[in-house]
Amino acid sequence: MVELKRLGGVATCVLAAWTAAAAPVVFTDDDAQSAFDAAGAFVKACTPRHSGTLRGRLAANWLLDRASWCGADATLDSFRDKTPFGERQFCNVMIELPGTRTNGHWIVVMSHFDTPATAKQPCPGANDGASTSGLLIALADAINRTGPHPDSIALVWTDGEECCKAYAPDDGFHGSRHLVDYFRERGRSVKTAICLDMLGDKDLHIIVPANTTTVLKKLAQQAAEKAGLKDLLKVDESLVVTDDHSAFLSAGCPAINFIDFDYGPGNAWWHTPADTMDKVSKASLLSSGRLVAAFLNILLYGK
Ligand SMILES: [Zn+2]
After folding, report:
1. Rounded to the nearest whole angstrom, what is the distance from the C-alpha of residue 191 to the centroid of ligand 1?
2. Which residues, listed in sequence order, are joined to residue 280 by a DSSP beta bridge?
């Protein structure tokens, strides 16, 4: 009986830990404020932040510091890669949150943070780069405080998404291509790769493009419905978007892109000096965060 009692106590602790681990991800109003504030501070401190430059490295270090505020370890993953201008140094920022299952499945959530060197005039990248980088900071907090979750989750701020001359196999998407190798070298199975891009737009219309894994399109629609954001999300079978999720698709991993590629009249603010924080809203980041949280909960908990 004594032994049973002692075991009972342990079992209760284990059960409590398991119950805590099963908490779904919740993205709150405070998280949206945190995402918005982080995006604004990032633009202010780190513009421009072209990949392969000292200011790009500064931006990665800024994110390293800010991302670790959630209490989880953030790391820099530096690597060299070929570009049309020779070999350059790139730097992804990562938070890796191990799951409770031992099956080695990972969910990857990504946002690029760099600004486009190809823009004719300096582009602050408030929506394109900073908004989803801020969103990822807030998501890291939301995911970490409700975890550990069944699957392992990697949050990655990718460098070198923008091309330095023109998109080509050696120009653009350096961070996500490197990330695929990073997971492959560690023998990790990527259950789903999620790319977030330009989701802070005040006038938010989220697209899941045609080049997304079919089953994930359905799950995205379920997530939007669950989050009460059905009218905000459209699966556009006529639109193909090459983005950071593309490297995962090429590697045979399920991958999805959430993007609002309609920024200003006729996308006029994209890659221009007009991409400033006044075009970004906390309300849009709240909607985007709630959608991603709902999507993650379907992946993690099936509901
Ligand atoms: Zn861009």
Report:
1. 26
2. 201
Query: For residues 209 and 121, is the Cβ–Cβ distance under 8 A?
Result: no
Report the separation in Å between the CA atom of 115 and the middle of ligand 1, taken as the mean of its atom positions: 7
Backbone angles phi, psi at 61, to 5 degrees: -70, -35
Contacts 24+ apart (CB under 8 A), 217-226: 217/256, 219/295, 219/298, 219/299, 220/256, 220/258, 220/291, 220/295, 222/298, 223/291, 223/294, 223/295, 223/297, 223/298, 224/291, 224/294, 226/294, 226/297, 226/298
Cα of 271 vs centre of ligand 1, distance in Å, is: 6
Domains of the chain: 25-301 (3.40.630.10)
Q: What is the mean pLDDT of residues 149-171?
A: 92
Q: Give 89 Cα–ligand 1 centroid separation in angstroms.
A: 19
Rounded to the nearest angstrom, the distance between the alpha carbon of 172 and the centre of ligand 1 is 10
- Give yes or no for residue 169 having a pLDDT over 80: yes
The continuous run of DSSP H or E covering 153 comes out as strand 152-158
- 80-95 pLDDT, tens per residue? 999 988 999 999 999 9
Residue 274 is encoded by which pair of tokens? 């007009």
CA of 98 to the centre of ligand 1 (A): 30
What is the 118 CA–ligand 1 centroid distance (Å)?
A: 10
